[in-house]
Every structure is written in C-alpha cells, then in structure tokens.
Amino acid sequence: MKSQDIASRWLEFFAQKDHTVVPSASLVSPDPSLLFTIAGMVPFIPYFLGEEAPPYQRAVSVQKCIRTADIEEVGKTVRHGTFFQMCGNFSFGDYFKERAIPMAWELLTSTQEQGGYGLDPERIWVTVYEEDDEAERIWREDVGFPAERIQRLGKEDNYWHTGQPGPGGPDSEIFYDRGPEYGREGGPSADENRYMEIWNLVFMQYQLSEVNSQTDFTVAGELAHKNIDTGLGLERLAMILQGVENMYETDQVRPVLDRAAQLAGRQYSSTEDPADPKYADDVRLRMVADHVRSALMLITDGVVPGNEGGGYVLRRLIRRAVRAMRLMGVTEPVLPELLPASRDAMKGTYPQVGQDFERIARVAYNEEKAFLRTIAAGTARMDAAVKAAKSAAQTGATGISGADAFELHDTYGFPIDLTLEMAQEAGVDVDEAGFRALMTEQRTRARQDAKSKKSGHVDSSAYRALQGSGDTVFTGYTEHTTASRIRGLLSEGQQVGLATAGQEVELVLDATPFYAEAGGQAADTGYITGDGFVVEVLDVQAPVKGLSVHRVRVTEGEVPAGVEAVGTIDLQRRLDAQKAHTGTHLVHAALHQILGPEATQSGSFNKEGYLRFDFRWGEAMSEMARSEVEDVSNLAIRDNHPVLTREMSLDEARGLGAMSLFGEKYGDRVRVVEVNGAWSRELCGGTHVGATAEIGSLALLGEQSVGSGNRRVEALVGLDAFRHLATERTLVNELTGLLKVPADQVRDRVAGTLARLKEVEKELAALRAAQLQAEAGRLVQAAVEVSGAQAVVRLLAHDAGPVGSGDELRSLVLDLRSRLENTAGNAAGTPAVVAMAGTAKGRPLVVIGTNQAAREAGLKAGALVKTACGVLGGGGGGKDDLAQGGGQDASRIGAALAAVRDAVGAGVGAAAGAAGA
Ligand code: ATP
Ligand code: MG
Predict the structure, then answer these.
(1) Cβ distance 633 to 590 under 8 Å?
(2) Could you say which DSSP state residue 521 is in?
C-alpha cells in the first residue's frame, strides 16, 4: 500500500466516524515555544490547554512533522526520520479510552477490502501505564486482546504531560513484531527494534499541578473535559505494509536513496548490522535520503537556511547530506540530482512541492553551492591549522588546537566532524574537548544575551494567564498616546499587585501605542503615567503572540495593577524609526531591481535613523551595484511615493506577489505595506512614514558578509544620513587642507603619496643592508677564539641592534661566515660560528651560522639557536648550517649570546671559563 493510500484511508476511516478532517498545518510551528511542528497534536494545543474553544469535538489529520531530536538516529535505527508524517485522531472532551482503543484496533486489523490496514493481529503487542486498569480492561474485554501481549510500564514510558502544570495522563502504545530475526523475544519492554512502536494513544485524563520531571509530578484531580490525542507514524506503517526493511525504503523516500547510491557508485545493501562492511555507506545513503526530503519539505514551508533557529536546522540537514555524499566520493553538487527525485516522490501528497519547486530548488542549490565554497575556503585555513599542528608537534604539543577548530567552525562554517575527519586524513589530532569548551562558552553567552533581551524567564504561563482576557490592542499605527488600563504587573515572572519607585517590572496594558519589537523594528520607548505614578518604558516585547509586555522602571510613586494609565511614546524616536523601516523596504526593493529577485531577505533590523538588511547572496556587491542601490532608494525618496497599508487574506497577498520573510509565521489576515503600489509590496506589521520623502535621504554605509551565503547592507536615513555625509565632507575638507590640493585631486594625491612611500621604504631597506655589509668588515675583527680539547673555534657573537627583518640578519650572518673563513691567519678548515642577534619591531631575533669544520666538530646551528631562544623566551630552529629563531624579551639578548658562547665552548670540550679567551 502506497503512503498516499495509507493517509487517505486514515482520513476516511475517522471521517466516517464523525471526525472533522483538518489539513496538515505548516512545519513551522504556530506555538512560539516550539521551533517546528513535532507531533500531530501541536496545531490543537490551544484546545487541549483550554485556551481556545475547539470548533469541533473530533478531528483527524495527517500532520507533517520534523523532529530534530532524532537526527542522530537517522539511518541507524530503522524507524526514525527527521521528517515524517503523523496520523492522528483527536477528541476534545468527547469520546475517551472506551472508543479510542477499539477504533485503533479496528483500523489496524480490519482487512484492506473493508477499508482497514489488514495487519496480522498476532503480531501486535500493546503497553499500558502500570496503574491504568481501565485501559488494560478495554484491551482485554472490549477488544478481546490476549493478556500475555499486554505489558504494563511506568511513568517513564507510558505517561504524557507537557512538562508544565496542565493536562496530562497515561498512554497506551501499539507495537508491531517485525519477527525473530530482528531481535529478542519478550515484547516491547525487551527490544524496541524488533517490537516497533507504531501508534501512541494518549489519554488526557488529569490536571497536573507541580511538574518537576517526566516521572515526578502531582495529580491535582480529574479533568472536567477529558481529551484524546493519538499519533501513528505513517512511514512506520508504510514499511510494514510495503514489506521493506526500514522507513527509508518506503515509497516516498526510496527514490532519493537510489539516486544517491547511483551518484556515489554504491550498491545499497539494506544492512542493519554495524559489523557489516557495507553498513557505513548504507547509513549514509539512508541519511541522505531522509535529509534531502526534510530539506525539501522545510523549504516548501518557507524556511530558509540561516545561522539560527529553524534556518540553522535546515542548513545542518543540507550540509550533513552533502558531507555524506562527499565521504562517498561525490564532490560535485548533489542536490540538483537528489532534490527532483524527492520532489517527484512527495508532490502527489503535497502539490505545493511541485508548484513551488523553482523557488525551493533555488534556495537549496544556493545553500549547497555556498557550502561547497565554505569547504573550499576553509580548506586553506584547515591546511594552515594542520601545518601549525605538525610543527608544534616537535615541541610536544598535540594536534589542532581547540581555538583553531573553533575558528574553523565559527568563521568558516566548518562543522567539527568535518574538521575531525580532515584532520584524521592529514594524520593529526584535534583538541575536541577544547573546542567543545569554547562552543559551550559561546552558547552560554548567546543564551544570556537572548534571555536578558526577551524576558527574565522562559516559563510563559504567567504571560498566558495575562493573555486570558484577550490580545493587547495596538493603537500605535494611528495614536501616539493612549488611555487604557494596567492589566497586570509581573516581577520575576510572577504577577504582583503593586510596583514601587525604583523597581523594574513588566507591565501589560489592555491597549498600547508602544510598538513591541517585531519584524526587525525596534521597540518604542516612552512613558506611562497615571494617578500618582510615572514609569519609564525601556523595552517592549511580545513573549507570547499577541501580548505586548512593557519592561518599565517606576520613576515616581506606586503603580497598582488594574488602574487607568496613559501610555505616551517617545515620538521623535518613533518617527526616526519608521523612516528607517520604510527605508528598509526601499533598500529591499532596490536590491531586487539591481541584483535580482534571488537576493531574498534573510533578516533585518531597524531603529531610529539606522537600518540593516541581510539577504541571501553568494558574493560581495560591486562598488557599482552598491551605489546603484543607494541611488534607486534615493530616487524613490525624491519621488515622494505614498506608503499605504492594507489588510487582506494571506492568499490574496501572495497572489499580489507581496514579499514575505520566509520562515516567518503569518496569520490568515495579513498586513501589506505598499510603496507606490506594486513598486514595493511586503507583508509587514511595522510602522511606516506616510510618504517616502519624509525619509529625507538614505546613505549606504557598506556591505559585508554575515555567514556563508549571506550579505548585509547597513544604511542611515534622515538626519543621521545627512550627518554622516556631513562628517565625510568635513574629512575631505581636512584632507584638502593637509594635502594642499582641491577635493577632486585628493584621491590621486593620496595614491601617489602611498606609492612614493613604498619606494622610499625599499630604498631605505637597501641602504640599511649596505650599511650592515660595510660594518661586517669591522665586525669580523671582533671574533674570538674558543679553544677546547677537540678544536679551536672562531666565534663571532654580536648584537646588531634594531634591524629591518630576520632576512637582513641572515644575509649578514652568511656574509660574516665566509669572511671569517677567509680572514688571513684563519686557515681554511678552522671551525667558525657566527651568532647575530637583533631586534625587529621590539622583538629579539637571532640567526646562527656554522661552517663545515664547525659542524664536523659537532657544532650545529639549529641546536645553538634553541639555546639562545630558550634564554629569550621563545623558540626557533633550522638546519645544521643556518638556523633562526626569536623570543619575547629583547633585554636578554646579551645573556642569550653568552649562552651561545658557553654552548660553543661546551661543544668543543673547553674547560669552564676558557671561552672567549
Ligand atoms: P520512539 O520511541 O520510537 O522514538 P516516540 O515515543 O518518540 O517513538 P511518539 O512521540 O509517541 O513516538 O510519536 C507517535 C508516533 O509517531 C510513534 O508511535 C511513531 O510511529 C511516530 N514517530 C515518532 N518519531 C518518529 C520519527 N522520528 N520518525 C518516524 N516516525 C516517528
Ligand atoms: Mg522518539
């Protein structure tokens, strides 16, 4: 039975039993506390929590799900996908266990001719919660299910709750025995690979008060309205009904796997045995098939690759798939081959995948290209890290440092597994623990930032309670000051009745003119006043959708909850912010005109006078393109286009081609902001100027990369733009004064001066070298004889003072070494050692050369340099005849040269004190 038939049979079966068929919601969860829809019940959460009245009492759905928590299992177990479809039936205060269990049984075991799935009843096992006698009784007596295939398990396995006070209850899970060749006898409690969970029936029966963990909670009482929430994994049932080994071999996934195997030149062998030599590639192929499908479905639902949240999950899925293919030797782009295979397998159920494929493919292929570029760019840095690791190995250090691995990750987007694998190929280790420590540090930092920004705590129940009396009314599109009522005050996440002067609390109004940070626009600030109190508004956020929460400091008096209050925003700041926001739309439209529609928005932020706009683009913008974008924006400002906002349905807006931020959640009714009609048309809830000329002017500050495949432009608007240009004009004026040329010649003059400076530096270096050579003749005279038991050595140890570079010292040493050999009275074959020290940029350097006779006497330049550098607090090395090094402490140069002399003396067996005689 095909996956699509499984889905339609499901819907039909429950529709016949009076369930309302509800289409799958988006993968992007409507619940702000969840990144993605992870189960069929997610769209119904407000009904289960009693926050909204359900429009029906029974519902049935086949819901698209993403579970990132299962990503590591993919391909290794037979039953975990990152994307899968969950079939569910739901009762909101209607039927309970007594109907849910028998219906499940009927659907699973009635024959396919009768409309069921026709599973063999003998292969089914079930579990119930250990205290749920009622469920067990229904299975045994009402269904006639054999007692020996029912297992009772504890809270760990068979209890459901949200982790917060609210509804909860026992569940009953249904398993399918895949057969003795897949594992041990003994039912699901013995082996969950052989006995595979297919369906979970959750009975929401109780109100839980305290919830400390999965197993530690308090049952406060029975729910007045008991609910049913069930979930069956469509792919798991498909693998049974299609007689294949795992979910990746089912009809909606297998075509991708086959295409991947073909590209990689591998024979897929379907093994689950880690000891099998084909296992590693089989896992990779299964993973590729899963990840490509998940990426396809995520992009379809509007997610775009990025560095945080859902965008990061998508990026990770694509990268893992591309990496897995590379590990099988495919270095060409793979998505252009694999994505269409996945599209063809999925579009029957999800027509949008086919209709929207051009956009989906563009997003996916660009991301893959960006990743391939990342690999190419990072490879040079990786090679440098490997080289550093290898040379450090001489001094006993091990492998690539945690800091290097972190930089590769952070700057080059190299996932750690890529670093590990490439390091292994190069034969060096990686300090993984060091890397992880740096990652944790970074994450903690990010979390603290996010926390302090959004709100002091993550538990949203206090906010939800305040939202009970409805969403905040936002009056700020038309009003700057609004009289309303203080609905509640929160301190540390708890409702309080009163706030006093000096206190910082959160304040919720019934209606507010304050814009809560959203859609990239910064929050308003201002004041809220009432009878005997004044509070300053520092920030406004919407921690749960529809509820504006003002973070305020009480500056005067006492503020009781429930009283009348008047909110007044800082108007100038708002006016400047909306110039920036409309300016952002202009820049967006201009980028589309200049670069093309592929330059899609990936983020934005604007506040008074300033805006930044991030977009997907693979390369730096040319100077020309930048000034064109600036010009197009300013022309639109000059033309004083009207800026109009309209409300309409999401479909209508899409039909009009309104640009929206993919990945953003939109309701059914959306707000569309238009500049000059269709010239710029975006979904946007922000505040804007009435007509573009209000913006005044717009100055682009520059353009830079923010992560792979993402660029950022920044700009100033209004008075800030003017001031920025004025500052630049002042700078030019100062330069014309300094250079004594008119403004239009400043550029040439500076370029000429720089070129001349380079020349002069070259000349200077040549002069200094000549001077040193001249000095060499005098220096030779300063050589001393160090005599020992084995030889007499001519040693020249000298501090040359400040030098241009090590190169300078090196040529001096070579020159002096040959002069020393050739000096009269120094018969050829006399051992000679030259040790020259100096400082470059304040740091000590030392270069040592030995002639052949000295080397024969056992004096090696490399060893001598190590001695000197030890004293200087550094390191160095080289060959036996010439070596170089450096250190930290230039004041120890004298001591370092003395140490060289001692070492030469010791090397030729001189008695202590004979050196330098
Ligand atoms: P498992 O223990 O096998 O991971 P689960 O307890 O996480 O399953 P539930 O959260 O109860 O599963 O989800 C309900 C049903 O959804 C499961 O019975 C299963 O059929 C299906 N399901 C859950 N996770 C996945 C997944 N990652 N891929 C495919 N199907 C899944
Ligand atoms: Mg699971």
Answers:
(1) yes
(2) B
